[in-house]
Fold this sequence. Notes:
39% of the residues lie in helices and 4% in strands. With 300 residues, it is mostly helical. It has two domains: 51-182, Cytochrome Bc1 Complex, Chain D, domain 2 (Orthogonal Bundle); 199-289, Cytochrome Bc1 Complex, Chain D, domain 2 (Orthogonal Bundle). α1 (2-34) packs across α6 (164-171). The chain is globular, with a radius of gyration of 21 Å.
Amino acid sequence: MRRFFKFVGLLLLLVVLAGGALVGYAWWRSDQAMARRIELPAATLVVDGSAAQAERGKHLAETRGCTGCHAMDFSGSTVIDSGAIGHMIAPNITRGAGGRGAPYDANKLEHAVRHGVAHDGRPLLFMPAYDFAGLSDDDVAALAAYFAQVPPVDKTQPPSDVGPLGRVLWLFGKFPLLPVDMVPKDTGPIAAPVAAVTPEYGKYVAQSCIGCHGAGYSGGHIPGTPPDFKDPQNLTPHETGLAKWSEDDFLRAMREGKRPDGSALDPFMPWKEFARMDDTELRALWAYLRTVPPKPFGQR
């Protein structure tokens, strides 16, 4: 019996040592990855600062997820607060005291939005560039025109940090810590489809859904988030998704936050942001979602 307990004790010790070594290796690798300086080609953007261009930028910022993380005044917020995984803090992106907006001209903003790279070449932690890698040159320019005139807010947010579990998950490709490694380094000029109620334009609009609902739009647990984090729902025409929904059902959900049976969508779903989309955007989004392959819930 003593031999048995000694064996169990030795086995536990080996497990602890192996776990510690794994965490140590993940910590070292992630520190190296976060310390990189990345060079990207300059984007050719035309920013005229016109009222129409800035208004388009405002519309995009309010409907594509910017306000969901960075708050309505863009002063930042805490998105995830989990010691083991980390603290995901969306910074203040205005030009106020404590804000990070000042160094971002149109070119640097393009690097941040479409590539997840900071103005100094560092990888941005958690910035969901995969949602915006396909954003058109005109729309990125519109964002630049708008953010250049956003009122400054004096507020300092704490930096994001990554816990041991988050680093291990990243090591195994299960945590989107550094989105720069998930998107093309050189997108080249990008043009948006014509704004119309078509699946093509709907696909363009749907880019901002990928981060939560997955590239296949079938939802499920977002990799790297805490266990109690709400699971985005299935948006595909599968029986576990929107198979029985009509366009009117979808528009009501986006406009009022109500399912077909009248129940409220979970507050985690930022329907109030999507409600600011115009009819063309929402109807095009619905047209596109009807064309994606049906998948069971959770396959992302």
